[in-house]
Amino acid sequence: MKCKNFLSISDVTPEAVRWLISSAAGMKQRGWNTLLSEKVLVLIFEKPSTRTRVSFDVAMRQLGGHCLYLAPEEVGLGKRESIPDVARVLSRYADAIAARTFSHATLETMAANADVPVINALSDLEHPCQALADLLTIYEEKSTLEGLILGYIGDGNNTAHSLMLGAAMCGINVRMASPAGYQVKDAVLGKARQYAAKSGAEIICTEDPRQVAAGADVVYTDVWVSMGQEAQAAERRRVFAGYQVTAELLSLAKKDAILMHPLPAHHGEEVAEGMIYTEQSVVFDQAENRLHAQKALLADLLGGLEIPMPDFR
């Protein structure tokens, strides 16, 4: 990929995103191997996690490497020990660091002081590993990416940022519906529009979820209240009340549209009860594909080995 770190999906080129998706599909077919034998990944988390922690751990094991997990209380990142010192020490022990942080600035400081690749396992700005898994899932379901319509309904959060950027890179038309004051950041939107201009994609931002869902190939939503936003929960639920993905809203999309959600889901809030268990839902395929997308990413950052991949369009 010709980059050391993966803090944002925009750290790599559109061609590299396509390569990673193809690589992930190949990894999924190939199964266990020894590409990263004798390599060590350290996970350092400020936030709890199910999918991110387990998928990275299993990814390293399936690639023949090793993974170590450091919980928040074990490090006290930026409190008990400075971020630069932690980055320098871990660089002496491990071949890569995957960090899940409250602030994106923490990741940037870590990357500036580490001698090994630093991977964004989630920050307040982006969730690029989730976007790779999402794009892999869409490709598996639709056999293409270019020209599809992705309708995102809900908070313009970290997941929305990475998804918008990655989709624009791959020629997916992006429609986003968020309440006023909760849209994606202007800087991210501007960058996504630059990618879209090159890929031929269209980006539409609106406050109308019905406009976004109409004719979509993919309907995507995420939680209204993320970790660290608990104090805003009541206000956010009030503001987002009209943005729930229901069967009626999904019926506005194409008949073969898929429903996506990065999990964890708040059933009865951003998505109606039972929706993620319907035939149109690929939510648990997304969850599985975190494993395969991260295997491709780790193999590229740490192994650099080329493997025959399926054709990507």
Outline of the structure:
The protein is of the alpha/beta class and 313 residues long. Helices cover 42% and strands 13% of the residues. The longest helix has 21 residues, at 283-303.
Describe what this molecule looks like in 3D.
With 313 residues, the protein is an alpha/beta fold. It has 2 domains: 134 residues, Rossmann fold, CATH 3.40.50.1370; 156 residues, Aspartate/ornithine carbamoyltransferase (Rossmann fold), CATH 3.40.50. It has 12 helices and 9 strands. The strands form 2 sheets. A 5-stranded parallel beta sheet has the order 7-6-5-8-9. Strands 2-1-3-4 form a 4-stranded parallel beta sheet, with helices on both faces. Helix 8 links the parallel strand 6 and strand 7. Helix 1 packs across helix 12, helix 6 crosses helix 7 and helix 6 packs across helix 12. The longest helix is centred in the C-terminal third of the chain and has 21 residues.
Spell out the helices and strands N to C: HEHEHHEHEHEHEHEHEHHEH
Structural class of the secondary structure composition?
alpha/beta
CATH topology of the largest domain: Rossmann fold
Radius of gyration: 19 Å
CATH 2nd-level architecture of the largest domain: 3-Layer(aba) Sandwich
Q: What's the CATH first level of the largest domain?
A: Alpha Beta
Which of globular, elongated, flat, extended, rod-shaped describes the shape?
globular
- Average pLDDT value? 94
Count of strand segments? 9
- Point out poorly predicted stretches: none
- Structurally, how many domains make up the residues? 2
Count of alpha/pi helices: 12
Query: What is the terminal-to-terminal distance?
Result: 19 Å
Q: Order the strands across the largest sheet as they lie in space.
A: 7-6-5-8-9
Residue share in β-strands: 5-15%
According to CATH, the homologous superfamily of the largest domain is: Aspartate/ornithine carbamoyltransferase
Report on the biggest sheet.
5 strands, parallel
Helix coverage percent of residues? 40-55%
